[in-house]
Amino acid sequence: MLDGYSVLAPVYDRLNDTVDYGKWAAFIRECFGKFASIPVTSVLDMGCGTGSMTLELAKLGYDMTALDLSEDMLAVADERAREENLSGILFISGDMCDFELYGTVTAITCCLDGINHLTDREELLACFAHVANYLEPGGVFVFDMNTPYRFKTTYADRDYILEDEGTMCCWRNRLNKKGDIVDFYLTVFEERDGVWHRTDGVERERAYGLRAIENALNSVGLELCDVSAGYGFEKPEKTTERWYITAKKPL
Fold it and tell me: Which CATH topology does 15-146+209-248 take?
């Protein structure tokens, strides 16, 4: 059985076509302006996947570096960048918990619950430590997370079918008794030349409370600036399913 994102790479964008990356990128730019103490010019997009956010931020004029563990995802991202004539993006294969850059950047992003994939505290701290190491003083770290509420309601032990022309994904969720770890069992059927091909994979996410996230950020010298429930900086509630978080490296 493959890792989930190798399974999803060829069909990922078709199955996530409801995400408004342009609006999300505009919100991230607003976070840069609102919370960074220095001009944001260079951005590392961690867990870039097929490059949807990387490309949107590149269109806004940022010097982009994109990092992902899945070479299959990076191949799709690179192809998309070429198709849209977006040159100059540096794609790097690497782990969010253990990566190297050629220098520092003025902002780091991580979108679509990439941080939830760090399933133990040591991984979380390692990732945040690398963020702090490569982030310039005054720069910001903007990321989102699925909330514990979402794990216990939307995910739980539910099954979903996602369909598009020539593609079907069976998505089975299994939540542990504590309610903080969910395993996603993925089966993708893709039609190619009249023949349906099946691929299976599994992914795992962990839910963290905001206090745990703030403590982890503080332990590596980062400061929590804002937690929003949406692109309008709405205040989170008990039923909020996704947090949009901004942290900063002090000057």
Answer: Rossmann fold (3.40.50)
